[in-house]
Design goal:
By secondary structure, this protein is of the alpha/beta class. It has 9 helices and 11 strands.
């Protein structure tokens, strides 16, 4: 099975323009993401999909693979499709790896890749929610599953609602799951989902995976117990990441 790992790296960002090139103790953020992906045992190839020449030149400069994609893509999923189509090789699956997680665990990538087979349309990672802060945060997408461990729904609200139990005690009575933003798409499915119009539920929750569910596509979920990595959305996040790096023996 051939799997293409794609790291979408958009230059424009309202909160942190040019963040893929942000320096983390001598290496850019996109370089650190790339190095973590190289540790995966299942990715056949890795490519950075960017909309900016400066990022492209930087990736090529450190010896990585990169492609220039459209500035008009509304999501990383659309950028992954173009990267797949620009590649000279054919792949069975594409894995979308967040370009702002410089400490992404390669074992999480491999866990997702191991779950893939010919019947898989889409796959993603989930994790048990263990704190009320996670459960109640609208920044955390929660997910409910069917008995085949396929996602039935994603929401920024706590789901399911636990009837007749005080909310502060919900975690003692029901297992909740949060979504971990790592996707795998079968090549033909990736082409189909990027042609779908924005859906009603997607607009309401601002979660693109709801578009796929609304249109009948199946999302396999795989549970991970790896510690959550640091996601860099702002310059303040970058400072926290640098502090984290300094504490590591090998950085």
């Amino acid at each position: 099975m051939k799997i293409l790992g794609v790291i979408p790296a958009r230059f424009a960002s309202s909160r942190f323009p040019g963040k893929p090139l942000a320096d983390l103790l001598g290496k850019s953020m996109v370089h650190r993401v790339y190095l973590q992906c190289k540790k995966s045992k299942f990715l056949t190839e890795i490519v950075v999909a960017t909309d900016h020449q400066k990022i492209y030149d930087h990736v090529i400069g450190f010896g990585g693979n990169a492609v220039i994609t459209s500035e008009q893509h509304p999501s990383g999923t659309d950028r992954c499709r173009e990267a797949m189509e620009l590649h000279s090789n054919q792949f069975d699956f594409v894995v979308n790896i967040q370009g702002d997680e410089p400490f992404i665990d390669p074992q999480q990538i491999d866990l997702l890749c191991r779950s893939l087979d010919a019947t898989t349309e889409l796959a993603t990672l989930i994790q048990k929610i263990i704190t009320m802060e996670q459960l109640l945060s609208p920044g955390e997408a929660k997910v409910v599953l069917n008995n085949k461990l396929e996602a039935m729904y994603f929401s920024r609200s706590p789901i399911p609602f636990v009837q007749k139990i005080n909310q502060k005690d919900w975690l003692d009575h029901t297992q909740f799951y949060r979504h971990v933003g790592l996707y795998a798409y079968r090549n033909d499915i990736l082409k189909k989902i990027t042609q779908l119009p924005v859906s009603t539920l997607e607009k309401a929750e601002s979660l693109e995976q709801l578009r796929w569910i609304e249109n009948g596509f199946k999302i396999k979920t795989v549970e991970t117990d790896s510690e959550e990595g640091l996601c860099i959305d702002t310059p303040e996040d970058l400072l926290r990441a640098i502090d984290h790096l300094r504490k590591l023996k090998d950085h």
